[in-house]
Amino acid sequence: MKKPTPAPEAAADTLVVKEGEDAWTPAELAEVMAELEEQRAHSLEIVAEQEDELSGLMRDSGDGAGQDQADLGATTFERDHEMSVLNSEREKLAQIDRALARIEDGTYGVCESCGQPIGKLRLMAFPRATLCMTCKQREERR
Length: 142
Hints:
Layout: H1 8-12, H2 26-61, H3 69-105, H4 120-125, H5 133-141
Helix pairs in contact: 2-3
């Protein structure tokens, strides 16, 4: 079971911001936390649905006897797609949980690569961000 996140009032004053940005307000942090919790609930729903779907595909796949190659190919493609979606949602859940943990421990908003502030505007637009724009762009060029 995940630990409860702190009240926005308690956490807001401990978070870093970029130079020139205003400090986090409890309302802004509450908005980010609500967005993360909403995304988390949505991802949990998708994971449950995808696991059920994948389990059905695995159960129905049998040994392939009596199926033509096109049916086997379509089944394999569908199973691979479901696994890809499931893995993507699991990764998203891990990112959300990491963001919530970082809010709790006061490291939310610090770039995991360079240690500089990520920026409040970026975090409000993409609450799961762990890298500042410079580090993210560098990562994407690789």
